[in-house]
Write a structure and sequence with these properties.
The chain is an all-alpha fold and 398 residues long. It contains 15 helices and no strands.
Amino acid sequence: MNGQLSKERPKEKIWTKDFVLIVFANFFIFLGFQMTLPTIPLFVQQLGGSDQIIGYVVGIFTFSALLLRPYAGHSLESKGRGFVYLLGLAIFVLSVGAFGFATSMAFLFFVRVVQGVGWGFSTTASGTIATDLIPASRRGEGMGYFGLSGNLALAFGPSLGLALAGMITFKQLFLICGGLGLAALLLSSRISYKKVEKKAENQNTKKRLDIYEKSALKPSMLLFFLTVTFGGIASFLPLYTTEKGISGIQWYFLIYAIALMVSRTFAGQLYDRKGHQAIFIPGSLLIFSAMLLLAWLPNSFMLFLAAILYGLGFGMVQPGLQAWAIEKSPVNRRGMANATFFSFFDLGVGVGAIAFGQISHLFGYASIFIASAFSVFVSMLFYFVILYKERLSVLQQE
């Protein structure tokens, strides 16, 4: 009888009021961000910048976010979730709104650095807040749902940004993006944030330069080699398709986001049941195939097929790796685990954008995606090394 009651016990609830608020806040901040993603390179071109400058403008944003994430991670545990999240959103709103007033490359670089600070604070905090609100037994599933808010923004953001760029001025576009960030700020002010109990640290821990969570390093390093590909796509795919005379770049982002959302509906639950082995290699192979298609890119059909493969692959891998990074960390270190995870995300995008700016200048846009495919291959090799060492460790313990 007790066994039957246990089986019929309902699942722990994911969709609480606070979780709904963080999901919507995440949607609006990501929508504002995604609208700038394909339009910033166009804005740089309008200001007279080259491909190399485009790479630096994209990269400097991610590196400033990277440098601030460890501090954000500590602040989440010391100053509280709400303080870090609201501060990050406020900085993001001001910096994105300031884009439209940039008349020189120097000022644009400055506000991109400031934007990176806001982005580093807000995204580190939002992932940690979502983790607090999701029951541990449904973490993979819950993070998948949370990620859908960003994916939905991705479905409309780039296409909407490109469409508006052809209809209104860049100044008006960036003010709209700042307004979306303001909507996120207002929603997040209504969340009841979890208070984290501080745990005593020994002297060795206090003396150590604490800029990452060790338990999150493996999945974060795997993510790095995958997000290098995103740096190339975000910075140069619109310019690449224009050069080749291939239409439909707006549809690429929409199709990619839809595929991303589809894979997230099952990838999180698959991770909860079978672990990262069930999602990493299949997802990485899909991303690898997408990069090869983009390097070839004979027509719009292949562009859309690459979008489907990339979306399905990234939608499988990213939430699983994030859940993996979090689950091994102590409760009072979740903020640092998220900071570590997103630091490697930023590092991959930044390295990709800057490196591919140089590569495209020397060898052309197609070479970007050949190098991206190689980066995915390195990630898969590293994953097999991790599996081998883990299994070897188990055998030695037996």
